[in-house]
Amino acid sequence: MAFTIALAGNPNVGKSTLFNALTGSHQHVGNWPGKTVEKKEGRLQLDGQDVLVVDLPGTYSLTAYSLEEIIARDYILDEQPAAVIAVVDASNLERNLYLVAQLLEMSKPVIVVLNMTDTAASRGLKIDAQRLGQALGGIPVVETIGNRSVGVDQLKQAIRQVLRNPSPAPLPAPQQRVLASELAALEQQIAADPALSQRYTTRWLATKLLEADPVVQEALTARGAEALLQQAEAAQGRIEEATGEDAETLVVDQRYAFIATVIQGALRRPAQAVLTRSDRIDRLVTHRIWGLPIFLLMMWVVFQFTANVSAPYLDWIDGFVNGSLYRWVGALMTALGLGDSWLRALLTDGIIAGVGGVVVFIPVLMCLYLALALLEDSGYMARAAFVMDRVMRLMGLHGKSFLPMIVGFGCTVPAVYATRTLENEKDRKLTGFLATFMSCGARLPVYVMIGTAFFGAASGNLVFAMYLLGIAVALAVGFGFKHTVYRGQPPAPFVMELPPYRLPRASDVLRQVWRRTRGFVRRAGTLIMTVSMVLWLLVAIPGRPGVGTFNAVAPQDSLFGRMSSLLAPVFAPAGFGTWQAAGSLVTGFLAKEVVIATMSQIYVGDEDSEAPAEAVNFPAELAASLLDFGKAAALTVQEIFNIVPRTVNLLPFVNLPEVSFFSDAGEEEDTSSLEAALVQSFTVSAGSERAGQVAAVAFSVFVLLYVPCMVAVSAMRHEFGARWMWAQIGFTLALAWFAAVLVFQVGRLVAG
Amino acid sequence: MSQPSTLRQVLTIFENTTTPLSLPQIAHELSISTEALDGMLQYWVRKGRLKETAAMRECGTCGSKDGCAFVVELPHSYELASSSNRIDIPIIGGMPCAH
User: Fold this and answer.
1) Which CATH class is domain A177-268?
2) Given this model, what pLDDT does residue A386 score?
3) Predicted ipTM > 0.85
């Protein structure tokens, strides 16, 4: 083997493609000795000469902070390849030249390969390869498009020339005077030690000593070169004293200064920066004035989509679970001779009513998860955090606090843990506290149920209002805390990477929707089923003697009814002082979906169980159910179309007609028995139908603001301690009650 | 004292800004590419002067191998590291999961 050349470069610059183009099938793949990093070697025939090409691991620099970097630089130092080919992404020249600058410090013959020149050209970048080579000290620069094998012959020609005349490029002189003199002094000292000067190039070793490279320091200690190490340490001190900057920072900055000089004559950017599509969208979406209204509009569309598009399927599942399935199970139990047994009541009034009541909201959650996944995958979520940063800071909160809050739209528990991204402990605690006011997915079914029951097609507005109110309350509470309990320094702004917008990938979006829906279903099958069974037991046990027997007692006289009745007066000022509402809120402490499961059991479970059993015609019901499914699909398409007119109609004096696939004539309002029972109960407790609507909104506000769920409370305790957890429970309960009372009392006055 | 270096100017922008910034904004101000800026930011992160926050993939409760489905993948962000308030909390499993 006559020569060895090494292939170096940043990750993802097309190094492997060039390696393959140079070596063809003459390759050997293994591991670097003692390391798990892949090592590729191949053979290149040049004028009958065998050249070994070694593909070094992709690295951004040659410091000692990653295994790849250490492997790459050790190879160059130990194996002394005849030349190093530095593969550079031409469209990302500045970043890539940092590695080239370090290779030049190693005093090795270097060939620069400008790869991906087509991408650079498409971005309007013009690189003068000849000038670049001159600026880098007269080294060869070859332009290639690796994936099309363009420029490979020219590269081989450059390798021939370098192998014939292997002379390293002259080293760039540091512009910083103190640094230059200290480097020169160290180089002299190194040159005076033959053992060191044979092993290392003097400039490289001097530079590494000033950078305090730990691997080099260790190697020199092992060689007994303490005097040199002491001199280097003294030099670092002098540099810092003279410049106010540590030596390493100066060394690194000199490299950037060198790169700036190199590209000055060799790289021409378009006179006006080329605005990508992402840049153009961002100009509007993150605009100081328009950014926030666009964010709010986006949320409005999301919740219109969530509430209305899911509604037809919600009705279909509701009809199936609480209608057909309920009757089929009842008929089956009757056929088995268990028609009047407690087991039948447990199955139908406990499990089907409780779990089924929650399961019917799967389409709602799937729509929410779909909308959130689309926003996440498109890159908009990052912009939302960016836009809200301004609002957060106006309230004295850390801009990054909104990031955990965004997580809170899915689930409060990871939102509490996401506060770990905040550095300051006070910010963490406060953000964890505020994240609980974000409407998680589990609260959504409650809003949708209340919205559908009391506001029909306008239910999306209630959902949107609740989400917005959650953010507003979080901001207001944060503002209050920041100006009282957590008074302190204004938060430091942060810098955010805004990834380019992209068309959401169907596979990623669907996987996200599936994973989140699976989590919800799993919860329905475990926690909610257990709670439903316990609740059924509490509703089946008489609350006092003489009001009935086990499984034959009116719900309000049951143990659960009696306990809930004790709490009901507390909620009377908020307009929902019934034992059912109070009981649902108590069980909702476990999980917010349980509010629905409880309501399904106690509002309608008893009525349905006492309804006369209808004859079951299984094939006819199945056929009707399938027909309803088809109708639901058509209505879903209709609702998707209607998002546009509903959004445009927000503008004043605009009234676009909505699409209607089915004639309304003869159609009855599709109201479930739970919805009807809710309307009746709230109307009675509030005093009138109008006041009942206001009470329903107050109930939603209470659900929004009080303790999120048992697991979220555990997470709070885990992260912030028991004291903070109890403070959070007490505060949110009080706040929820005051807010609900305020909404009801003021709303009743306004509504008349 | 000579003109502050580009590397130093990056830190100065962090210290002086009163509004949130994006990487392209800083790159534009310094007349460098965002990729070059990224390299500089990485340097300051390694030196402990900036703190980089990467997307969180787990919530710490269930310790699921795939990460929590409810964790939103958020972009990298950088801020000045203040040593006095810095906290380092390990992810601890063993908590009940909400899902």
Assistant:
1) mainly alpha
2) 79
3) no
